[in-house]
């Protein structure tokens, strides 16, 4: 790991009565020229459809640019849409890169190249947070979790040239301090039309449920924070005005937007007055109540992404996902469908309790309940989770490029790896056959979900078990 010593600006205060923010602002005023940041969203190297077609604007990285842009000059690059990182990094003082496990090797390569050119290199995102010692070998400093909660300390150290190897907040800032994301950083790219038209937005952070395969509790602990409703609604109105239309499309990026029912239902009631459309990831803990689904539909919800995960109650228990009650699955689906809300349903395979029958049960459930957009993945123990620690002796490899939930990580006790992959491919091909699509989608609005199904038809036809090895 390399620590960069830049030209030091001396803090003019000798008394502890001055706040860290005051010291930072004094340092900012002393700058002769603003330091320049290169902020990078790296592309993944996975063979699966992760960075294909349109991609979401990277909200977390846009937030980094928004916060840093108040003090520094920002260049924003998103490799997923075709932006290229320059070989010569001499115009920049700081190179900041985000990373998940599936693009960690790419992020590390970018960090290594920037270090060789003498830059301050910041690595953040889920993977560097989970494995900050590993990530520290490829950067000046690792940002643990969100940048907003350590920003004053980090910015001060950058200006003084006194970088620490790890920045981790002792406590997380309330979301009321969160600035409205400045999307102009991402939209400035000539290739910005490759972004999805859905606007990412954030109302809450954290999820106290504690599923043992999820990274969120490691990052946020048991904290659950939320923005004041007026801030969320004002942000929506801002985008309506920016786009010149009421029917703006929003995607909530929250880990679990419905965890506090009173907050969630009040938000929905207020959103129903705006004329927008929206989707979100959501747990199903109270979607079995018809009035909740009715309010969601009335507020403009057109799709909810739900982690059904499995039809096996023992598996649900083993991964500590108490919000999932299999007896309520069909009721939840029916409530949503009755209110015009489509479902993106997530299903995982490769748990020790899985058998060949698990695939048939899942197929039957999807077809009977006409799940509009089923998404299938292989169980992946991600670094930093309790499940990773539990399964580590059985994990086949630690090639982060393949930690995309589409590669075979370990052999379940209930079947061989060969049987797992054969059935995994067969299920996807059966669900996305032309006649299966027509049966699931018949009578439903012709929109992007239809298009996604036909893209999946083409994609699944090319699948083979070997791809997942």
Automatic annotation (TrEMBL):
Cross-referenced Gene3D superfamilies: Cobalamin-binding domain, tm_1862 like domain
Transmembrane intervals: none
Keywords: Iron, Iron-sulfur, Metal-binding, Methyltransferase, S-adenosyl-L-methionine, Transferase
GO cellular component: cytosol
Pfam family, one: Radical_SAM
Residue intervals of the Radical SAM core domain: 193-413
UniProt cofactor(s): [4Fe-4S] cluster
Single GO MF annotation: 4 iron, 4 sulfur cluster binding
The protein's name in its UniProt record: Radical SAM protein
Species per Swiss-Prot/TrEMBL record: Chlorobium phaeovibrioides
């Amino acid at each position: 790991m390399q620590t960069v010593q830049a030209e030091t600006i001396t803090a003019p205060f000798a008394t502890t009565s001055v706040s860290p923010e005051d010291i930072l602002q004094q340092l900012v005023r002393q700058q002769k020229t603003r330091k320049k940041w290169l902020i990078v969203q790296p592309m993944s190297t996975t063979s699966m459809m992760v960075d294909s077609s349109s991609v979401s604007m990277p909200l977390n990285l846009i937030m980094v640019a928004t916060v840093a842009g108040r003090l520094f000059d920002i260049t924003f690059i998103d490799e997923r849409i075709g932006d290229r990182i320059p070989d010569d990094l001499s115009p920049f003082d700081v190179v900041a890169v985000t990373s998940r496990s599936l693009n960690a090797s790419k992020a590390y390569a970018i960090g290594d190249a920037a270090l060789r050119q003498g830059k301050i290199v910041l690595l953040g995102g889920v993977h560097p947070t989970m494995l900050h010692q590993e990530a520290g070998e490829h950067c000046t400093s690792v940002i643990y979790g969100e940048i907003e909660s350590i920003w004053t300390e980090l910015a001060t150290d950058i200006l003084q040239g006194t970088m620490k190897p790890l920045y981790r907040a002792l406590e997380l800032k309330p979301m009321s301090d969160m600035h409205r994301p400045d999307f102009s950083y991402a939209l400035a790219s000539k290739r910005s039309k490759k972004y999805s038209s859905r606007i990412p937005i954030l109302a809450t952070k954290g999820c106290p449920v504690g599923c043992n395969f999820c990274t969120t509790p490691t990052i946020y602990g048991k904290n659950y924070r939320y923005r004041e409703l007026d801030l969320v609604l004002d942000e929506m109105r801002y985008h309506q005005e920016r786009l010149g239309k009421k029917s703006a499309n929003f995607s909530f990026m929250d880990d679990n937007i419905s965890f506090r029912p009173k907050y969630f239902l009040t938000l929905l009631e207020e959103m129903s007055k705006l004329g927008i459309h929206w989707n979100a990831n959501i747990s199903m803990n109270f979607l079995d109540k018809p009035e909740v689904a009715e309010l969601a539909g009335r507020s403009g919800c057109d799709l909810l992404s739900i982690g059904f995960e499995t039809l096996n109650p023992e598996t649900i228990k083993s991964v500590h996902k108490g919000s999932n009650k299999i007896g309520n699955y069909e009721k939840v689906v029916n409530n949503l469908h009755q209110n015009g809300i489509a479902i993106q349903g997530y299903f995982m395979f490769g748990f020790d309790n899985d058998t060949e029958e698990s695939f048939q049960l899942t197929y039957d459930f999807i077809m009977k309940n006409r799940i509009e957009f089923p998404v299938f993945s292989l169980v992946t123990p991600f670094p930093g989770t309790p499940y990773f620690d539990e399964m580590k002796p059985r994990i086949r490899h630690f090639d982060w490029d393949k930690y995309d939930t589409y590669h075979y990580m370990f052999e379940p006790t209930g079947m061989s790896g060969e049987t797992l992959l054969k059935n995994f491919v067969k299920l996807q091909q059966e669900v996305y056959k032309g006649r299966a699509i027509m049966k699931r989608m018949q009578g439903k609005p012709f929109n992007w979900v239809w298009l996604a199904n036909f893209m999946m038809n083409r994609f699944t036809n090319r699948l083979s078990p070997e791809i997942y090895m």
